[in-house]
Design a protein that fits this description.
- The protein contains 25 helices and 26 strands.
- It is of the alpha/beta class and 758 residues long.
- Strands 5-6-4-3-7-9-10-8 form an 8-stranded mixed sheet, sandwiched between helices. A 6-stranded parallel sheet has the order 19-20-18-17-21-22.
- α21 packs parallel to α22.
- Its EC number is 1.2.1.41, 2.7.2.11.
- Bifunctional enzyme that converts glutamate to glutamate 5-semialdehyde, an intermediate in the biosynthesis of proline, ornithine and arginine.
- One of its GO terms (cellular component) is mitochondrial matrix.
Length: 758
């Protein structure tokens, strides 16, 4: 705990030796000394007269938050000219006499022009007001601010430079935020061609160059440059092919076409890039980002410091492989080529992958052994996750069988005609299946997921981005290598990409221009996080697997214990495992009920009593905290219901629409349950564990979906397809079908082509 002005605040441990800039965004959280440069477009209003007070308040709040974490914050700000322009205009209007205004006539008054205001005068009039505003805002967070006005001469004169340096260090030592600006009231014209001559020379001719010079002089860890664009683009923002550059490296300037400068201020993007590269050369990391966007400006600074993918990050370290954006483009292009192959060719790729899983068994198991040893040594994974991480010969054989099943069933998946309509004479319409596009599959501790999902993507002609957990890095690497080897037989190696960069899952979920569907495979927390983080990209999956088994009064004694044991104990960590057991009230204190309890005790299943069940018992197990709980272990809840109707109501209220089961010999009761339970999978006298793509005969699944749009339940090839419409005509125009036109709509259904059942 540190104290300033008697206000305690929490600090984070920050220590770093200045010298080299950060290599990756994820390291920015270690930045201790930070300069935030606020461009004129960020600080001023759209009319360029006055300040954007809401934006400024949000920026001050973020800077205060970081300052109170123990960081040393400095602000290089524009805005004095705009603030002064507002004040001087107001003074000019007030100085005109009322008589002049009345005698000038309404039309002349309307057209009266305010004289052009000289920038230096505006700066002189605005500096005090701008600083007063900053002081008032920082005071709300118990932080003191101090103003420093500089010119280029202050950096070129050695004595003045030492004085400036000493002043800034003393302010930072006292936990004061320096507010720095060029002294525009007296600033001389910039020296031509004097900047970027060497690491110790940069002409302070705008606040971009001032911020860069200051950052290097003060040995800051991070310089954040806020402007009115998202970052650096490879061509002027707004042009058709403009793409935001995530990471910019020295030497990449030739690949960038700069546009015009912003609506206000002295510098443009080219000036910002030059200043950023100069600071980078001096050992300071730089991020250029948008400080005006209403959706992100409230957290843009803190997001950058947290390492989130915001704006353009300047780095001197180029990664060995492609960026995730490049991988997305490669997957898109590869997926389109994959979709254009003949069905037999796609099947051949999957058959080849199945063979490689068995042929290269020893190499796969050796890589998996490394993952298991590292996980056990670090002690980070619980036993259920270690089981998921583990591969075996039998698992690989099962995988190969499933892949061959996918290959055999995928012959007519892509391009299948599902509807044909004769719209009019010689005008035929078809609806055909096509791939969704690029899939992003994020999975934890399950390397066997990689070949399964890859095979489904190949069969459906989709490009694929895979993001596995680092605990399975060695296994994922070799499995992806084998997948690309199989794809290479038809020249579509790039269709499946494994993301190995330091991209956070949240950042991947923002790539809405590259990814068409996200499929999370992992814990309920992972799924919820992805659903929350996804920006404009649909997420297929389920956040919870709260599966119910209802035991009816007409249930078979022989079937009950077998189905319950299999549903709960066969693999309790699975999303399709039993979590809540519903028992008809009439079965309490019967031999069947005793058998159920005895079986659960033998299997060491911890029982939690629901409220109604607890009310029937003198000494009951621990009462359940919530009826909406996914245990994922040898635990379950038991609750009592009075009828099948109440069982259905309970499932709708507390379930997750995943998988629910009834055990009964009464067909009428069973059909009522099957028809009324609104879940993705509803079973009669069968274990919840059958809710699986492989067991359904889909070969494998990319996941189980509980959503009500598109795919639902175990999702195989069909769930990875969408449709498009093909219309074949002969000089048809809509005007021919008007009231007095020569043609009439027929809308006749046509027979579908016969499906390939081989």
């Amino acid at each position: 705990i540190r104290c300033w002005s008697n206000i305690p605040f929490i600090t984070v441990p920050l220590s770093r030796t200045h010298g080299k800039s950060f290599a990756h965004r994820s390291e920015l959280k270690h930045a201790k000394r930070i300069v935030v440069k606020l461009g004129s477009a960020v600080v001023t209003r759209g009319d360029e007269c006055g300040l954007a007070l809401g934006r400024l308040a949000s920026i001050v709040e973020q800077v205060s938050m970081l300052q109170n974490q123990g960081r040393e914050m400095m602000i290089v700000t524009s805005g004095a000219v705009a603030f002064g322009k507002q004040r001087l205009r107001h003074e000019i209007l007030l100085s005109q006499s009322v008589r002049q205004a009345l005698h000038s006539g309404q039309s002349q008054l309307k057209d009266m022009a305010i004289p052009v205001l000289e920038a230096r005068a505006c700066a002189a009039a605005g500096q005090s007001g701008l600083m007063a505003l900053y002081e008032a805002m920082f005071t709300q967070y118990s932080i003191c601010a101090a103003q420093i006005l500089v010119t280029n001469l202050d950096f070129h004169d050695e004595q003045k430079r030492r004085n400036l340096n000493g002043t800034l260090h003393e302010l930072l030592r006292m936990n004061i935020v320096p507010i720095i600006n060029t002294n525009d009231a007296v600033v001389p014209p910039p020296e031509p061609n004097s900047d970027l001559q060497g690491v110790n020379v940069i002409s302070v001719k705008d606040n971009d160059s001032l911020a860069a010079r200051l950052a290097v002089e003060m040995k800051t860890d991070l310089l954040i440059v806020l402007s009115d664009v998202e970052g650096l683009f490879d061509s002027p923002p707004g042009s058709d092919d403009a793409k935001l550059i995530d990471i910019f490296y020295p030497g990449d300037q030739q690949s960038v076409t700069f546009g015009t400068k912003s609506r206000v201020g002295m510098g443009g993007m080219e000036a910002k890039v030059k200043a950023a590269l100069w600071a980078l050369q001096g050992g300071t990391s730089v991020v250029i980002a948008n400080g005006t966007h209403p959706k992100i400006s409230g957290h843009v600074i803190t997001d950058i410091v947290e390492g989130k993918k915001v704006g353009t990050f300047f780095s001197e370290v180029k990664p060995a492989g492609p960026t995730v954006e490049q991988q997305g483009e490669m997957a898109r292009a590869g997926g389109r080529t994959l979709a254009a192959l003949q069905p037999e060719q796609r099947a051949e790729i999957i058959y080849r992958l199945a063979d490689l899983l068995t042929d290269q068994r020893e190499e796969i198991l050796l890589a998996n052994k490394k993952d298991l040893e590292e996980a056990e040594n670090k002690g980070r994974l619980a036993l259920p996750l270690l089981k998921r991480l583990s591969l075996s010969t039998s698992k690989l054989n099962s995988l190969a069988i499933g892949l061959r099943q996918i290959a055999a069933s995928s012959q007519d998946s892509v391009g299948r005609v599902i509807r044909r309509t004769r719209v009019a004479k010689d005008l035929d319409l078809e609806q055909v299946t096509v791939p969704i596009g690029v899939l992003l599959v994020i999975f934890e501790s399950r390397p066997d997921c990689l070949p399964q999902v890859s095979a489904l993507a190949i069969a459906s002609g989709n490009g694929l981005l895979l993001k596995g957990g680092k605990e399975a890095a060695h296994s994922n690497q070799i499995l992806h290598h084998l997948t690309q080897e199989a794809l290479s037989i038809h020249g579509v190696k790039d269709a499946v990409q494994l993301v190995n960069t330091r991209e956070e899952v949240e950042d991947l979920c923002r790539l809405d221009k590259l990814i068409d569907l996200i499929i999370p495979r992992g814990s309920s927390q992972l799924v919820r996080n992805i659903q929350k983080a996804a920006k404009g990209i649909p997420v297929m999956g389920h956040s919870e697997g709260i599966c119910h088994v209802y035991v009816d009064t007409d249930a078979s004694v022989e079937k009950v214990t077998r189905i319950i044991r299999d549903s709960k104990c066969e693999y309790p960590a699975a999303c399709n495992a039993l979590e809540t057991l519903l028992i008809h009230r009439d079965l309490l204190r019967t031999p069947l009920f005793d058998q159920i309890i005895d079986m659960l005790r033998v299997e060491q299943v911890k029982i939690h009593a629901g409220p109604k069940f607890a009310s029937y018992l003198t000494f009951s197990p621990s009462e359940v905290k919530s009826l909406r709980t996914e245990y994922g272990d040898l635990e379950c809840c038991i609750e009592v219901v009075d009828s099948v109707q109440e069982a259905v109501e309970h499932i709708h209220k507390y379930g997750s629409s995943h998988t629910d089961v009834i055990i009964t010999e009464n067909e009428e009761t069973a059909e009522f349950f099957l028809q009324h339970v609104d879940s993705a999978c509803v079973f009669w006298n069968a274990s919840t564990r059958f809710s699986d793509g492989y067991r359904f005969g889909l070969g494998a699944e990319v996941g189980i979906s509980t959503s009500r749009i598109h795919a639902r339940g175990p999702v195989g090839i069909e769930g990875l397809l969408t449709t498009k419409w093909l219309l074949r005509g002969d000089n048809h125009v809509v005007s021919d079908f008007s009231e007095h036109g020569s043609m009439k709509y027929l809308h006749e259904s046509l027979p579908l082509p016969q499906r390939n059942t081989n």
